[in-house]
Amino acid sequence: MRSRNSWIVMAVAALVAAPLLIVYASRGERMAAMPAAAGGTGATTQAKSTPPPPEPEKPAPVAPVAPTAAPLTEPVPLPPAPAPEPGASAPAGGAQNVLYDLNKLPRPVQRMLEQIVVAAQSGDIEQMRPVLETNELKPMVAAAAVDDPIAFWKKTSADGQGRDVLATLLNVLSAGFVRVKDGKEDMYIWPYFAETDLSKLSPAQLVELYRVLPASQAVPMQRAGKYSYYRVGIAADGVWHYFLQ
Known about the structure:
The structure is a single chain. This protein has 245 residues and is α+β, with helices and mostly antiparallel strands. It is 44% helix and 9% strand. It has seven helices and four strands; from the N terminus they run αααααββααββ. A hairpin with a 4-residue loop joins β3 and β4. The longest helix is centred in the N-terminal third of the chain and has 48 residues, at 2-49. It starts with a helix and ends with a strand.
């Protein structure tokens, strides 16, 4: 009986406590809102009463400086190079009347030279055969007569295919050349060292000589003053006369 009464008392107490909690909770919310509102009012009042910070001073405008010269819209033209003398140039040194301008060659010589270079650049020495066949005669490739220059070049080459011979031919033709009289006709000879005293070459000409042949061969030739390496001769009518040492 006493236990039952205790449960009844607890239930009644819970029923009474619930409304009180609701009341106190709502009162707590109102009390919490009041300071917030008061604080907001205070903040607003403080914001209104505090003067704004002074704005930073702006620098005084600077007057634009007038340019001393108009901007360039086009590159400044370079002065023209001095025109070479008729024929071609002769660099300082032992060589005279050295030619570099292939356009000054007779047209038949230009055609033959073009055929030789194209065939040599192919890397296949057999491409040189049609060039030889279009020639009026077989060019001399050695001191003795040679029936088949292609076979001779292969036999004397380092790789047995004649590629080093083609490279030598191109190196020789890359140098300057000279025009000499061979009987009644003009002969164009590469390189000009073949008609030059090597002991009188300028430093620039020595560099050109080293491009044609190894220094181990060039130095003894320079001391002797005589060129004894490969040379090419093409007549003014376009006939390839020789390529030999």
